[in-house]
Amino acid sequence: MPSPGDVVRLGREASVQFGGDRALVLRVTVVNDRPTYDGWVWLTGYVLGETGEAIDKREVFVQVAGIQPAGEPTAVAPVARPARAVARRPRRHRADTRTTPPQRTRGIDPALV
User: Where is composition skewed (Low complexity) in this entry (predicted)?
Assistant: First the structure.
């Protein structure tokens, strides 16, 4: 019976849906304890690609006798991603934030408005 953290290979022996080129390598995250048929188990985990990188999350119903240990896949080197350029708006001065020109009123100095 696998445990969370185990890496297993699921082929035709585990379930007919994984026969031939549909076999997969799964890093187990949860072994569900809900009742099932004798010898079967629900596993939740991440499908691993050839480099060991998680490519999909799956929940599968498989025969315990057909689960094979896969060993640790090759470690994935971190991918360096270029920094994303961010378009910045020019800063406006506080005086530029008015949407309409100031109104001149009779008898009041416009510099005080």
Answer: 73-85
